[in-house]
Specification:
mainly beta; Sulfite Oxidase, Chain A, domain 2; five-stranded antiparallel β-sheet; 3 helices; 11 strands; globular
Length: 143
């Protein structure tokens, strides 16, 4: 994690798995009309943000995929929401590659395109340098 944080840090998958975990059964609702329900397991994003010490001017968390073209962001209200997780598990096992493994952002209060697969970078910022429309969709995707 980088950007507007007091203690920039990198976390290995093993380190993330050693942190307190949360599991939740929520529906992933795709903007294209399909959905499914799964049990998601991971680290609460707010806990990661607390570990690195977000600075007062922080307004957004951006996240990027290994697939460079896939990136998105949430405001601090969604970043700090207890259901927003950095996921490494699904349905009691590892997060399958097809579902974004090894790490996926899970933002259940927003449509599926906010739950970017294969994440590898999180940046805390006070402004967005992302296109206002991700892949043709609105920035805010609240359900």
């Amino acid at each position: 994690m980088e950007g507007l944080v007091a203690r920039p840090a990198s976390f290995t998958l093993a380190e993330l798995k050693s942190m307190p975990a949360r599991s939740q059964i929520t529906q992933l609702a795709c903007e294209e009309g399909w959905s499914f329900i799964a049990e998601w397991t991971g680290v609460v994003l707010a806990d990661l943000l607390a570990a690195v010490g977000i600075l007062p001017q922080a307004r957004f968390v951006t996240y990027q995929s290994f697939q460079k073209r896939w990136r998105n962001s949430v405001d601090m209200a969604d970043a700090l929401h207890p259901q927003t997780l950095v996921i490494y598990g699904m349905n009691g096992g590892e997060l399958p590659t097809g579902h974004g493994g090894p790490l996926r952002m899970r933002v259940p209060r927003q449509l599926g395109y906010k739950s970017v697969k294969y994440i590898n970078r999180l940046t805390v910022t006070d402004s967005l340098n992302l296109p206002s429309r991700a892949r043709g969709y609105s920035w805010y995707a609240g359900i």
